[in-house]
Recover the amino acids of this structure.
């Protein structure tokens, strides 16, 4: 397939390659050229002066978690419910322009097998399998009255596992890779809307976090850690964790260590939304409201610190809920990226940085090892979007939404997103 008459954002550079053509052969980008490309027999798509760019990469999603709450999923949800929700979420993400998704807990390898075989439609899928966390921590989804050591709905489905010592971390970490994980997810801090854990929690000993890293290293992969407090981030980095999730207490000292360690961060920017305290799940639960107020005060410096001491940051939405709600949240997260950091930084965050991050799964566990992701260059995977206009000037063309809660349902795919190609196959073309 030959794309002509396009301006190319390559995932990295601030200037587009003007008046270019891009040739795709099979599932790879064969040629990127400002001159004419001879490709007899190719299907030609005239971009009409629009922008061609890499498919977006979501670095922290939960495709299997439909909500409306953790207790509801624990007590009243079957594997069929989870599977159907994950199937619908996968298609929604692809049609919003995300050709790669890294799942941050709750999904095993079955969804990727279905996508990659063509049985269902969805993005490339990097999965963490079961959340790993301590009793009473952010991966403890058991019912309130559940006795210690009893199995749960989440543990039976290998969606979350309680790990309270080094042996547990090793056993369930290795089982995650057995079940299709590409990396491990360790829950080091607490949360805001969760039941048992203060957000300030420092869960797990240093030896337990190091055990997770050890298991990941056995498979040539890495660990992503749910870390809020600065102390949590620093101990995770010291243990060898390569991906800090959320990282709301980020500052320039953390940035220095991250750069030394070659680590990444992903942050759901909706956490800094002015209306956060009005969200029903927060406002209607006194304990969560108190936690949210405390957290918001502590995390207030994140945006300024990230601008002052930037590190490799990938995109994160972290939606748990219905497909309709997550569609809205994804569009709002895109909008906030641009509001806080501008269009170029946001596009890099959503493309090439995400590509570098998922590649940390290594030679053995990376299910897509034959080309780069998140870039438009020769030899990269043909994961390609064409959007109206120039997103470096008008970011809304990537499918943003300016409202979160209370917003109207969004279209299945943004009108300004004209072409979606993944792995050399067209999933949308309105040109």
């Amino acid at each position: 397939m030959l794309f002509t008459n396009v301006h190319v954002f390559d995932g990295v550079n601030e200037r587009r390659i003007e008046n270019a053509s891009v040739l795709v052969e099979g599932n790879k980008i064969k040629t990127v050229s400002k001159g004419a490309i001879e490709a007899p027999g190719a299907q030609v798509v005239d971009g009409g002066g629009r922008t061609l760019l890499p498919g977006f990469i979501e670095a922290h999603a939960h495709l299997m978690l439909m909500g409306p709450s953790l207790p509801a999923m624990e007590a009243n949800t079957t594997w069929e419910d989870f599977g159907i929700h994950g199937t619908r979420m996968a298609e929604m993400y692809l049609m919003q322009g995300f050709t790669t998704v890294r799942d941050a807990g709750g999904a095993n390898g079955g969804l990727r097998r279905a996508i990659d075989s063509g049985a269902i439609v969805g993005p490339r899928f990097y999965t963490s399998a079961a959340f790993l966390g301590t009793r009473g921590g952010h991966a403890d989804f058991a019912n309130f009255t559940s006795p210690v050591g009893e199995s749960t709905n989440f543990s039976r489905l290998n969606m979350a596992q309680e790990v309270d010592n080094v042996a547990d971390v090793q056993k369930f970490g290795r089982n995650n890779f057995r079940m299709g994980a590409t990396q491990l997810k360790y829950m080091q801090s607490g949360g805001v809307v969760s039941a048992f854990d203060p957000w300030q929690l420092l869960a797990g000993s240093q030896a337990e976090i190091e055990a997770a890293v050890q298991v990941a290293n056995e498979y040539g992969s890495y660990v992503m850690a749910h870390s809020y407090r600065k102390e949590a981030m620093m101990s995770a980095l010291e243990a060898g964790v390569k991906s800090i999730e959320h990282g709301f207490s980020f500052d320039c000292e953390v940035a220095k260590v991250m750069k030394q360690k070659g680590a990444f961060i992903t942050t759901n920017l909706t956490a800094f939304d002015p209306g956060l305290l009005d969200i029903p799940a927060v406002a209607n639960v006194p304990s969560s409201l108190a936690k949210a107020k405390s957290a918001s005060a502590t995390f207030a410096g994140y945006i300024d610190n990230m601008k002052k001491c930037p590190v490799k940051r990938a995109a994160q939405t972290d939606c748990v809920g219905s497909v309709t709600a997550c569609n809205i949240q994804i569009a709002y997260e895109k909008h906030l990226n641009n509001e806080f950091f501008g269009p170029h930084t946001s596009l890099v965050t959503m493309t090439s940085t995400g590509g570098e991050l998922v590649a940390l799964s290594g030679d053995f566990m990376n299910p897509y090892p034959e080309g780069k992701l998140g870039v438009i260059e020769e030899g990269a995977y043909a994961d390609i979007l064409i959007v109206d206009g120039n997103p470096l000037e008008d970011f809304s063309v990537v499918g943003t939404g300016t409202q979160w809660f209370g917003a109207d349902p969004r279209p299945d795919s943004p009108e300004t997103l004209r072409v979606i190609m993944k792995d050399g196959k067209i999933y949308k073309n309105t040109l």
Notes: The longest strand covers residues 44-54. The CA atoms of residues 194 and 342 lie 32 Å apart.
